[in-house]
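[step 3/7] fold_predict: job queued, chain A
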Amino acid sequence: MKLLKLFDKFILKLEEFILSYAVIIIALMVVGKALSRAIFSYSPPFADEVSQISIVVATFMGISYAARKGRHISMSAFYDMAPFKIRKILAIFIPAVTALFLFLLAYYSYQYVYGVYESGRVTPALQMPAFVMYMFIPIGLLMGGIQFLRNMWINIANREEIYLGTDVKDYNDEDDREIEEQVHM
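[step 4/7] structure written:
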């Protein structure tokens, strides 16, 4: 169990490292290209490709991080109004279905990336294999699916509380506790 927690912490730090540097690279490339074009009337041809790769990395590698932190997009109007038992069921069902779809998308994206790999295509400016840019899509989707399964499991294992992510409790429960504490004062 301790080894799994250590591995999980390593994955979290790796995700944070990848995401933060991808965002920094995007900013540097976009601003650098704009400044270069404005000052020198020249735009480096590789800037668009590096930005595109960084956006793909940030987008798909960010799925797992967002799921872990409970920061993924959700339409929660009905969820927020539901009583605890219904929210608990939804907190198990929604991540399970989401994980299933992410695994399915990971499979299809892997097939696509493998096809790009077999084609031998390279990017126009950097002349690097095109599959390198796309390989982060199935990796991110797979890691996101695993994280949503973890979210589902933590809600099955913990009966008293609802978790939006493995690191984040449901904000509705915190609001309910604050109200109860104020009433009992």
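[step 5/7] annotate
The first helix runs from residue 2 to 40.
The chain has one domain: 2-184.
exit 0
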